[in-house]
Design brief:
heterodimer, A: 3 domains, B: alpha+beta, OB fold (Dihydrolipoamide Acetyltransferase, E2P), 13 helices, 34% helix, globular
């Protein structure tokens, strides 16, 4: 028997069995099996007999499953020649998207763009969805994502992503990394001072964190050293751990998001 | 006059891989006492593990029927590992000609007398023979099956001489048999009144059955019943899905009561699918497959307060790859700890669980640290992956999911539904999959390497192997 006629006979046998199973063998008699689909272990009880036959047909149907016809494809996005962003940088962005030290996100984008990397492609939907509420982020994302952002918006209308970025309202967060202070050494000293006089409480963390994010990167090793040496106090410990986290993530970020030596 | 078998010929006599593997370490002269042979037989006393030595004898005089075995150990495997080890010792030339030990002489004499008789007096010969009660004669049926006959579990009860334990095993087999009969009655009743009957859409109907199966220690089937219950009314063609599942459960229930009529690997598969557990040590005793294994993907499901984690391993190298599934369980909402990261490869041994197909496995000895394997397993076409699934299903019809790694493009088919497709066809993506946007964004409309599970619900993508990164979905 050819594959087609075998498939057709399995289909017709299956639809017979389904119809009777839905109505019940008490109400409908079970007809004789089509040739080749007889019960492997014949039984007197029509319900058992139906299950016997259904088991054989179901196994044949499942194991003989063939892929469906290919639908028409979406036009692919042009191949992006830029190198992919390193997996370590993608992992950092994933952490920031989860809310950890996200103060460094503008710098991550600025450095990724400067280094000429592509965005981690699997994070693009999450970034664009977040961009629906944050136009400045949206602009930064699309500036690196290039044609793929608009392509995704068109390919998956169910995401309800706009094809083009919106405009940033006046006075909104510009999503740019803070510029370095004129004297980063003095800022490091000031941060150390807040731990000595115990003013680095959790209430003050926002301001100090911003200072760490803005610091000239050459001062980061010094800051990490000083934070590790800072005296323990219950009031300042949480701040110290947070600042160390920011400084360390920033150091790692600088290490991976540098332009590849051509 | 018997020809001395070779080492390899002896291993071919093993009833399964685990018996062969278990026999090898026992084939050392120091484990044996009074081992001897003559023209037609080999015998000896295995003294290494128990206080009471096991008396082992192998009759090699029957050229047509093949060797016959006798061992006083409680294993029901024929030949058991002791008989195999004795033969290995003999094959390696460590057994010297000697006078027959009394137990061997008596047994061989009985056999010879019976053969000479050519009559149907086996039962009489047995009745006359003063053998210990648990000392199964090789001429009786090798395998009555756990539920079809005696209290046999996939792991031979080595301390089965303990009558308490035998009693417990027998009781368990009886409970399972009663549960399976009840399941089968329940299934037939549903077919009698019809799937359209209102009680089928009442979750209570299914829950009562599942609870009954749990009581009968058919846990695997109970979970299956609960999964089928969720499909009632799930879409317009649910009757077809539910009839398929009911028919397969019926096949399992019938098969489990007749395992003696099934091939031994398939019978083990039926046992596991109904709820018997296999001791990890028995699996580890099997001959391993040593290779580089890529951790290709991970999926989790909740089953009655337990999180089940499936880790899919694929052999490195060109297609077709060998797939393996390693299960881990986390009770009461505890996260299952991930032992190996997806997108890495380990060098080492996999030990297979028995079954109609080799799929479930345990990771045994590994060498070295995991290495990155971000390219993933070698992909196949969708048609080839579908065919591999078909063959697997032919080996184990109740298989619920099967791994695939394909190079495919996601394509929309309307209403927010997607398929993955290549030149050989398309597979629907499971409707419960929530991270399609990531698949589409990574592919950009180009083919991408996708590893996932195929099941009755469709294709569930688990890992994307794109560029230099394995993206876990």
């Amino acid at each position: 028997m050819s594959a087609e006629s075998l498939g057709a006979s399995a289909r017709s046998e299956w639809s017979t069995l389904v119809t009777i199973a839905v109505l019940g063998t008490d109400r409908r008699p079970l007809p004789r099996a089509a040739p080749g689909w007889e019960s492997p272990v014949p039984a007197d009880d029509p319900a058992v007999e139906l299950l016997n036959r259904a088991a054989a047909v179901a196994t044949a149907r499942r194991s003989g499953m063939r892929p469906g016809r290919s639908p028409s494809l979406i036009e692919p996005v042009p191949v992006d020649p830029r190198p992919m962003c390193p997996p370590a940088a993608a992992a950092q962005l994933t952490r920031m998207l989860a809310g950890q030290h996200d103060i460094l996100m503008p710098e991550w984008f600025a450095r990724c763009r400067a280094a000429g990397f592509q965005l981690p492609l699997h994070l693009l939907p999450a970034l664009l969805l977040r961009g629906r509420r944050n136009p400045a982020l949206d602009i930064a994302v699309r500036a690196i994502a290039g044609a793929r952002a608009a392509w995704l918006a068109e390919a998956m209308p169910e995401l309800r992503i706009r094809p083009t970025p919106g405009t940033v309202p006046v006075g909104a967060d510009p999503f740019l990394p803070p510029g370095p202070p004129p004297d980063s050494g003095a800022v490091v000293s000031a941060i150390v001072e807040t731990f000595l006089d115990r003013s680095a409480t959790w209430a003050a963390v926002g301001q100090i964190r911003l200072a760490v994010a803005a610091l000239d990167p050459t001062w980061l090793p010094t800051l990490i050293l000083e934070l590790n040496r800072a005296p323990f106090h219950a009031m300042t410990e949480r701040t110290r751990v947070e600042l160390l986290g920011v400084a360390q993530l920033r150091t790692e970020m600088l290490a991976v998001l540098t332009p590849a030596a051509a | 006059m018997a020809v001395r078998p070779t080492h390899d010929q002896v291993l071919l006599l093993a009833p399964d891989r685990s018996a062969a593997a278990a026999a090898l370490p026992l084939a050392v002269p120091s484990a044996w006492s009074a081992a001897g042979c003559d023209d037609g037989a080999v015998w000896g006393a295995y003294i290494a593990t128990s206080a009471e030595p096991y008396n082992v004898a192998v009759d090699l005089s029957d050229d047509i029927g093949g060797p016959a075995y006798r061992c006083s150990c409680p294993s029901r495997k024929i030949p058991c590992k002791h008989a195999l080890a004795l033969l290995l010792l003999y094959a390696d030339g460590h057994v010297t000609p000697a006078r027959r030990l009394p137990f061997a002489a008596a047994w061989l004499q009985r056999r010879a007398a019976r053969r000479g008789d050519e009559s149907e007096s086996d039962a009489d010969a047995e009745a006359l023979a003063p053998v210990p009660s648990h000392d199964g004669d090789e001429t009786t049926s090798a395998d009555d099956g756990a539920l079809g006959g005696g209290a046999r579990s996939p792991n031979p009860p080595f301390d089965g001489g303990d009558p308490q334990r035998q009693k417990r095993q027998f009781e368990r087999a009886e409970r399972m048999r009663a549960g399976l009969q009840e399941l089968d009655r329940w299934l037939a009743d549903r077919i009698r009144v019809g799937l359209a009957a209102s009680e089928l859409s009442d979750i209570e109907t299914w829950d009562r059955l599942a609870a009954r199966l749990v009581d009968a220690q058919c846990g695997a089937l109970a979970n299956r019943v609960r999964r089928v219950a969720t499909r009632v009314g799930s879409h317009p063609h649910w009757h077809e899905d539910v009839l398929e599942e009911m028919a397969l459960m019926h096949a399992l229930a019938v098969g489990a009561q007749r395992t003696s009529a099934l091939a031994s690997q398939l019978a083990e598969g039926v046992h596991i699918a109904t709820g018997l557990t296999v001791a990890k040590d028995d699996v580890l005793a099997g001959v391993p497959s040593t290779a580089t294994w890529i951790i290709a993907g991970e999926s989790r499901t909740r089953e009655d307060r337990i999180t089940v984690q499936r880790t899919w391993l694929a052999s490195a190298g060109p297609a077709p790859v060998t797939w393996a599934m390693v299960l881990a369980f986390g009770a009461f909402g505890n996260e299952v700890t991930t032992e190996h990261a997806v997108g890495t490869a380990i060098e080492g041994d996999l030990h297979w669980y028995p079954g109609g197909i080799a799929l479930r496995a345990i990771v045994g000895r590994t060498t070295g640290d995991p290495t990155p394997a971000v390219a993933g397993p070698a992909p196949t076409t969708i048609a080839d992956a579908t065919q591999a699934y078909g063959w697997a299903l032919a080996g184990e019809p109740w298989l619920e999911r099967y791994p695939m790694c394909v190079a495919a493009v996601p394509a929309p088919i309307g209403n927010g539904r997607w398929v993955i497709t290549d030149t050989t066809g398309a597979l629907p993506v499971a409707s419960g999959f929530t991270r399609m946007a990531e698949v589409v964004a990574v592919s950009g409309g180009h083919p991408v390497r996708i590893m996932g599970e195929w099941s009755a619900e469709g294709f569930l993508p688990l890992t994307l192997f794109a560029g230099d990164q394995a993206v876990v979905l």
